[in-house]
Amino acid sequence: MRSAKLYQYQLPMDSGVILRNQRLVTREGWVVELRDGEAVGYGEIAPLPEFSRETTQQAGEQAQQLLEAWSQGDNLDLSQALPSVAFGLSMAQLELAGGLPADGNYQVAPLCSGDPDDLIVRLDEMPGEKVAKIKVGMYEAVRDGIVTNMFIEAIPEIRLRLDANRQWTPIKAQQFAKYVKPEHRAGIAFLEEPCKTPADSLAFAQETGINIAWDETVRDEGFEVKAEPGVVAIIIKPTLVGSVQRCIELVNQAHAAGLTAVISSSIESSLGLNQLARLAAWQTPGEIPGLDTMQLFAAQLETPWPGCNLPVTSLVTLEVVWQK
Ligand SMILES: O=C(O)CCC(=O)C1=CC=C[C@@H](O)[C@@H]1C(=O)O
Ligand SMILES: [Mg+2]
């Protein structure tokens, strides 16, 4: 006997979370609950403003239509679904079927978008491989180069993931590279999307010897995973990419091409983030996922994130907007 519910959530964010051009004060989305007999599965559908093409409203409407059909016994057809809807519904279905292993990889790459000193402290405390992610491209390219050098000098075994989010012109990117001492370039595991176009980013990697990773490009029309000189990784943000099956297909294609695949957050609540940690442990074992986004919130949802002391909002207190 099948039943389904769609909850609406709104969670307060920490002050000062900026997404491209706007401040994110509240994170909004939907949680789907699927039941079949004793089994239950959850999924989060939360388009990210300025990153997702769909709105929260559109995602909620499509989720309801698909759930309507599912509750009447049809299979969920996610082939035409919006990415966030495909992700949330496929995750709920996977959990319902007992297909998502319980163990998660909660060892995240600490994210620095502010004071570099805070990151040094966190890295000192980090056991095992020291991986960190730094946002670049927001200030002067020269400053980014200096900060990069500083980290590599302070922690020689560091594996830095830098993220420029396509902010640089080829000249700016070159200015950055000029400031990173050649002997330090190997300390950069990869630089995500340095330039405005993939072609410029490829040229940058080949000219500077700094390895790059695709993130935005993974979501471009017609993207295919392939080995290219200077490209070492792809970043997979499931809420922006689509179903769990599509994400697994990308992971497998990356591994077949000799690339690293990194499961990363689209600022999901602790409910979705926990599922991403489980997906990462299962599909990208040994690779530290990009999930250090709990710190951006002022509250958690239903499933607490390990070590996080923020208050937890439980699902039963949320408004159920649809059920059958
Ligand atoms: O990738 C990570 O380690 C954390 C996630 C992250 O950095 C981002 C998630 C979603 C939107 C952006 O703010 C940002 C990014 O630019 O990739
Ligand atoms: Mg990015």
Automatic annotation (TrEMBL):
<keyword id="KW-0456">Lyase</keyword>
<dbReference type="Pfam" id="PF21508">
    <property type="entry name" value="MenC_N"/>
</dbReference>
<feature type="binding site">
    <location>
        <position position="215"/>
    </location>
    <ligand>
        <name>Mg(2+)</name>
    </ligand>
</feature>
<dbReference type="InterPro" id="IPR029065">
    <property type="entry name" value="Enolase_C-like"/>
</dbReference>
<feature type="active site" description="Proton donor">
    <location>
        <position position="135"/>
    </location>
</feature>
<protein>
    <recommendedName>
        <fullName>o-succinylbenzoate synthase</fullName>
        <ecNumber>4.2.1.113</ecNumber>
    </recommendedName>
</protein>
<dbReference type="InterPro" id="IPR036849">
    <property type="entry name" value="Enolase-like_C_sf"/>
</dbReference>
<comment type="similarity">
    <text>Belongs to the mandelate racemase/muconate lactonizing enzyme family. MenC type 1 subfamily.</text>
</comment>
<comment type="pathway">
    <text>Quinol/quinone metabolism; 1,4-dihydroxy-2-naphthoate biosynthesis; 1,4-dihydroxy-2-naphthoate from chorismate: step 4/7.</text>
</comment>
<dbReference type="Pfam" id="PF13378">
    <property type="entry name" value="MR_MLE_C"/>
</dbReference>
<keyword id="KW-0479">Metal-binding</keyword>
<dbReference type="InterPro" id="IPR010196">
    <property type="entry name" value="OSB_synthase_MenC1"/>
</dbReference>
<dbReference type="GO" id="GO:0000287">
    <property type="term" value="F:magnesium ion binding"/>
</dbReference>
<feature type="binding site">
    <location>
        <position position="163"/>
    </location>
    <ligand>
        <name>Mg(2+)</name>
    </ligand>
</feature>
<dbReference type="InterPro" id="IPR013342">
    <property type="entry name" value="Mandelate_racemase_C"/>
</dbReference>
<feature type="binding site">
    <location>
        <position position="192"/>
    </location>
    <ligand>
        <name>Mg(2+)</name>
    </ligand>
</feature>
<comment type="function">
    <text>Converts 2-succinyl-6-hydroxy-2,4-cyclohexadiene-1-carboxylate (SHCHC) to 2-succinylbenzoate (OSB).</text>
</comment>
<keyword id="KW-0474">Menaquinone biosynthesis</keyword>
<keyword id="KW-0460">Magnesium</keyword>
<feature type="domain" description="Mandelate racemase/muconate lactonizing enzyme C-terminal">
    <location>
        <begin position="116"/>
        <end position="211"/>
    </location>
</feature>
<dbReference type="InterPro" id="IPR041338">
    <property type="entry name" value="OSBS_N"/>
</dbReference>
<comment type="pathway">
    <text>Quinol/quinone metabolism; menaquinone biosynthesis.</text>
</comment>
<dbReference type="InterPro" id="IPR029017">
    <property type="entry name" value="Enolase-like_N"/>
</dbReference>
<feature type="active site" description="Proton acceptor">
    <location>
        <position position="237"/>
    </location>
</feature>
<dbReference type="GO" id="GO:0043748">
    <property type="term" value="F:O-succinylbenzoate synthase activity"/>
</dbReference>
<dbReference type="GO" id="GO:0009234">
    <property type="term" value="P:menaquinone biosynthetic process"/>
</dbReference>
